[in-house]
Amino acid sequence: MSSDPTKQNAGYELVKPPRDLRAKVRVLSEREAARFDPIKSAEAALERLSHDFDDWMASEAATLSEAWTDIQEKGIGDTERRETLFRAAHDIKGQASTFGYPLVGSVAGSLCHLMDHVPAEKLPLTLIAQHVEAIRAMVAETGQQEENATAKALVDKLTDVTNDYISRHGDGEED
Questions:
Q1: Using CA atoms, how far apart are residues 124 and 133, in angstroms rounded to an integer?
Q2: CA nearest 108: which of 124, 75, 85, 141?
Q3: In which residue ranges of the chain is pLDDT below 70?
Q4: Are 120 and 158 in contact (CB under 8 A)?
Q5: What pTM was computed for the model?
Q6: Three-state SS for 37?
């Protein structure tokens, strides 16, 4: 093997990092390792970051709203605009529970499911708008209250309507 950190092969370049990450890690003594609780450490790190969760969730909701506004102004026909909306919803779906917004994550998941299983020309703009508006409202007002009956009913209804629409207009490829 060559000592060159890069290697050309079949149209791609393999780049090896110049450092071994092990040099950045401190090995714990037996005594330290016995007292170390990785779960407790991770929870403490999340707690330190948690004061930013509301702002981060609001930022994600704003990104989703901007993507939706772009589609409203320019149409849903462009693949890139649809992908931008899907990616924003998918990011929310993945982050919402960690940020303390589980119901928002459910709505975002429903929107992703809709966009994943219905061909672009059959996507219902009104139903997409309802998902985006629900996310915006829940982030602004009720997102952290999983026991909120109104928000829970909204999530359930959007999920039911989405599943019904997919069953009638979907591509037939369910997860």
A1: 14
A2: 85
A3: 1-10, 17, 45-46, 48-51, 142-145, 172-175
A4: no
A5: 0.73
A6: coil
Bridge partners of residue 82, in order along the sequence: none
Render 67-114 in DSSP notation, one character per residue.
HHHHHHHH-S--HHHHHHHHHHHHHHHHHHHHHT-HHHHHHHHHHHHH
For residue 97, CA distances in Å to 55, 102, 104, 114, 168 come to 14, 4, 8, 20, 30
Query: What amino acid occupies position 30?
Result: E
* Alpha-carbon gap, residue 102 to 138, rounded angstroms: 10
How far, in Å, CA of 95 to CA of 53, rounded? 10
Q: Using CA of residue 134, residue 72, residue 87, residue 57, what is the dihedral sign?
A: negative
Q: Cα–Cα distance between 44 and 39 in angstroms, integer?
A: 9
Sequence-distant (6+) residues with CB within 8 A of 154 are 107, 134, 138
Instruction: Kindly report the backbone phi and psi dihedral angles of residue 12, in degrees, each rounded to the nearest multiple of 5, phi listed first.
Output: -130, 160
Q: State CA 1 to chain mean position distance.
A: 41
- Give backbone dihedrals phi and psi of 9, rounded to 5 degrees, phi first: -160, 120
pLDDT for residue 1: 45
- Look-up: residue for tokens 């009913």? 153
Q: How many helices (H) and strands (E) does the chain have?
A: 7, 2
